[in-house]
User: Which sequence fits this backbone?
């Protein structure tokens, strides 16, 4: 089975499990070659529904988690998105395909912050290889501070586990009516995925499910 066949089989399975629902998210999952975003020796496992090591002690999330977070963010063409934790750049590429599709006039954009320089550099290369460099800007820095230069954001995606107290800059940099999707809890076990909607100066928080992410480190994250 080639990569495309494996990718389609994985997507079909995620649809069957009720995780993938929205046509634009399904299309992005069918289109982005996940094998380009994992180290060469892990390519044969690229379409297993598990996290994979990407070096520097970090992981690319399992595909069902990417799918789930894209669904909960209610991404739309034209959205301006902040991602904290670029990692491999795969999740950013998925989002880019949804918020700035090829034939649409709506040009959404992703600002994605990564604290480990070597990963930020590899992510930039991966994103170029997949052809999304015009829709994603990778920034090397502490994403717990957000990225105030381009705020406010329609959506914010955090792909590392925050302490229970959600970083204040992220809540501040979310647009009124915007959605923040973030895992939070303890540093290793006992984390939940939260979907937080900003309504004026109020935040509506929904807990989705138990999850396991690498820790969000930094000023408003865990200490390194
Ligand atoms: N979204 C990624 C998965 C990333 S794993 C993908 O699709 O591959 C989580 C990433 O968050 C790691 O690369 C880690 O280095 C990064 N991270 C942790 N704390 C951070 C912070 N304060 N700012 C930016 N990135 C951070």
Assistant:
């Amino acid at each position: 089975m080639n990569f495309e066949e494996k990718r389609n089989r994985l997507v079909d399975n995620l649809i069957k499990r009720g995780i993938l629902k929205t046509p634009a998210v399904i299309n992005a999952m069918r289109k982005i070659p996940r094998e380009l975003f994992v180290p060469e020796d892990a390519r044969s496992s690229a379409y297993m529904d598990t996290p994979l090591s990407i070096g520097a002690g970090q992981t690319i999330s399992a595909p069902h988690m990417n799918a789930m977070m894209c669904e909960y963010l209610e991404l739309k063409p034209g959205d301006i998105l902040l991602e904290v934790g670029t990692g491999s750049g795969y999740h950013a590429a998925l989002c880019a395909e949804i918020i700035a599709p090829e034939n649409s006039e709506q040009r959404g954009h992703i600002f994605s912050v990564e604290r480990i320089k070597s990963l930020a550099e590899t992510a930039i290369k991966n994103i170029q290889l997949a052809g999304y460099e015009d829709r994603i800007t990778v920034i090397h820095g502490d994403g717990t501070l957000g990225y105030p230069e381009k705020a406010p954001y329609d959506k914010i995606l955090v792909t590392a586990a925050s302490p229970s107290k959600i970083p204040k800059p992220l809540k501040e940099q979310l647009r009124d009516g915007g959605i923040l999707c973030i895992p939070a809890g303890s540093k290793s076990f006992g984390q939940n995925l939260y979907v937080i909607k900003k309504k004026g100066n109020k935040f509506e928080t929904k807990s989705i499910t138990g999850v396991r992410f690498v820790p969000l480190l930094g000023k408003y994250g865990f200490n390194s």
Observations:
- The chain has one domain: 3-211.
- The chain has a mean pLDDT of 97.
